[in-house]
Amino acid sequence: MTDDKALYAAVHSDWRSDEAKSRDASRHPVEALTFWGLRPKMNILEIQPGSNPYWTDILAPYAHRTGGSYYVTGADLANPKLSEGSRKARADFTAKYTTRPDLYGDVRILNWGAVSKTLPADLFDFILTARSIHGWMQSEPGTVEATFNEFYKALKPGGVLAIEQHRAAPSAYGKEDPASGYVSERYVIEQAQKAGFVLAGKSEINANPKDTKDHPFGVWTLPPSLRSTAYGSGKDEDPAFDKSKYIAIGESDRMTLKFVKK
């Protein structure tokens, strides 16, 4: 239990979906955000929440109710090559989160991507990136390094970079397969430290020792995705695929890391 009543209220609110709440036992939002050091009146930046904005429904109302501000990176509308799917996803996100100022406050969506690569400097107290690093590793060479450098510049001195990421086995360091969704903890720590961050803590609240990390369709074989085809393959799901083994494993083993800008 946290002493932060506003955080507890946001997590246990009636505006969060039943689906999101069903994942709390695996994602431990109160414990994770408390560990990361979320506090009232912070300028918060959430990175790439995607189509399932689990953290958004906690962080935006929390910022609104505690005198802080909430920013989020969205699909880069300055990029002429941006897909129609990405444009629609951003429009849907905008429609949901910018039309309820009573609930979410003044949600500020930042262009960030291939063209708009720069975030506001020295503005944020708290940046959260959840399960995105494997995607950056599959982008153009140098993307991971540039992204961590950008986070460092965007945070105020003393600001927090909070990371949640599917965790590969330690033996995977140096030969990770980011297409599987898993990244070694050592790799993530090294990348953050190269950018100047100091590791302030590691937590095992999101560890899952039952996760063998060798699933046929990567981390997406596990809940909540429970895929029966390769991610991004475009193939229809296989109705004969036995998902019971993966349901029994539960959600992925994840690192929960806290870095600070000195």
3D structure, described in words:
The protein has 262 residues and is of the alpha/beta class. The chain has a single domain (5-209, 253-260), classed as 3-Layer(aba) Sandwich (Rossmann fold), CATH 3.40.50. Helix content is 33%, strand content 18%. The protein contains eleven helices and seven strands. Strands 3-2-1-4-5-7-6 form a seven-stranded mixed β-sheet. Strand 1, helix 5 and strand 2 (69-74) form a beta-alpha-beta unit. It is globular. The mean pLDDT is 96.
Could you name the CATH topology?
Answer: Rossmann fold
> What would you call the structural class?
alpha/beta
Shape: globular
Beta-strand content: 15-25%
CATH superfamily: Vaccinia Virus protein VP39
Unreliable stretches: none
Count of individual domains: 1
Distance between the termini: 29 Å
Integer average pLDDT: 96
Main β-sheet, in a few words?
7 strands, mixed
CATH class: Alpha Beta
Feature tags:
Rossmann fold; 262 residues; 11 helices
Brief summary of the model shown:
By secondary structure, the chain is α/β, with parallel strands linked by helices.
